[in-house]
Amino acid sequence: WLPIVRAAAVKPLLAEMKRDLAALNIKHDVFFSEASLTSGKKDQVKAAIEALRAKGLIYEGRLPRPKGHDDDEWEDRQQLLFRSTDFGDDVDRALTKSDGSYTYFASDVAYHYDKLERGFDHYRNVFGADHLGYIPRIKAAVAALSDGKADFQILVCQLVKVLRAGEPVLMSKRAGTFVTLRDVVDEVGSDPVRFMMLMRKNDAPLDFDLARVVEQTKDNPVFYVQYAHARAASVFRNAKEVFPGLDKMSKAVR
């Protein structure tokens, strides 16, 4: 039943994500499905593993018990491992689970292998701050697959704290009380959301105050920029009326 439910759920959920992105005037040329790595004529995960094996970077071995891991859940067993420690990682990484299926990391390796095979010049990943620990293994995989030649960077984005009039908006998955990106866009508009996201560096924390970004005061950077734009546009309109033949791109009005 799971494949049936998954197939029925993926399409509408992806459509909803695309609508949310469109509301912010964001367009992705390609949406890549993890399932496509193993559902086509070629098993891309297997191909990526074989590419690493050809470089002598795959072996069967055992991993040490993870720190703080519950003894009842941890299983000491032979695993298919990638020598990620050769590329700066703190431990080699498993590519298969106990039931023989691929790990999430194996799929990530295959995804980057596919991108390398497509011949891109620059590779950029965007990670949330809660995935910092995942960075070394991904960098190790890309370095191994590309022989260290790929121009690869991982950009880390801090999480956004949503406020209302200075007070945190409390969210809970269990209680079903959380604010989605679409909720924010519907409440304050797309321009304030885009502006606030771009005003800071991606790795800087962001407090997004739903009340402040719609205030018409100089303390609101969104309004301040919109006001400045409106004044500049007014200058151009008046200049056109007073000087009909004036080129608005001339030095006189720059």
Automatic annotation (TrEMBL):
Cited Gene3D superfamilies: HUPs
InterPro entries, per database record: Arg-tRNA-ligase, Rossmann-like_a/b/a_fold
GO function terms (MF aspect): arginine-tRNA ligase activity; ATP binding
Signal peptide: none
GO BP annotations, alphabetical order: arginyl-tRNA aminoacylation
PANTHER family reported in the protein's UniProt record: ARGININE--TRNA LIGASE, CYTOPLASMIC, ARGINYL-TRNA SYNTHETASE
Name this protein carries in UniProt: Arginine--tRNA ligase
Organism listed in the record: marine sediment metagenome
